[in-house]
Amino acid sequence: MTEVTTATTTVTTGRLKRVLRRPGTIWSVFAVVVVGVLGAGGWYVGHSTVQLMNGNMPVACGEATRFAAAQPLPDSARNSECLHGQWLGIQYKAEFHIPRADFEAWLRASYPTAQPLRTCTPRADLCADVKMPEDNTPPDSKGITRRHIADDTSINAWTLPDGTLRVELSAYTV
User: Fold this and answer.
1) Average pLDDT, stretch 109-119?
2) Cα angle, residue 102 at apex, residues 113 and 66 outer, rounded to 5°
3) DSSP 74
């Protein structure tokens, strides 16, 4: 009977040792998961920061046009892509395709006091530079004063083979 008890005690002691080792395993798995989550989060934050500093952070085009004190893009604008960047200053870029007549109407509505379009060969077919007033509150086409942040806005347009324009709007602080 003593041998049977010893055998049971040995078996029980073996199980107890395995159970005591399990918390170490559980903590190891937990540590690996936590390090993995923190590593993925760190990569995401780092990647987003690099995108922002390089000016490649995608944003809604409405945000870009508001920053540039421009009217929203017309419905005829196609293939629009807008980006945001911030390093020593803030910059928004918008690129879109639009029929020429709609572009000229949008430009007049957005910047009624801007200089007329001029030829900018070889850089672009048409261009306009908009200097914002010192108080940064130019009136829109209806005479309403809107607050914005951009100090300068550049607009370049290239004529595409189908007759539409590829427009690049760049608004930035100095």
Assistant:
1) 79
2) 55
3) P
Residue 75 near residue 102, CB atoms below 8 Å: no
pTM reported for the whole predicted model: 0.63
Give the residue, 134 or 83, on which the prediction is more confident: 83
From 87, 88, 79, select the one nearest 61 (Cα to Cα). 79
* Residue 155 CB partners (closer than 8 Å, separation 6+): 107, 127, 128, 129, 130, 167, 168, 169, 170
Longest dimension (CA), the chain: 108
Residue 137 three-state SS:
coil
- What is the residue whose two structure tokens read 């078996």? 11
Token readout for 108 is 């007049």
Instruction: List beta partners, residue 31.
Output: none
Residue keyed to tokens 């399990």: 22
Q: Residue 15: pLDDT band by 50, 70, 90 thresholds?
A: low
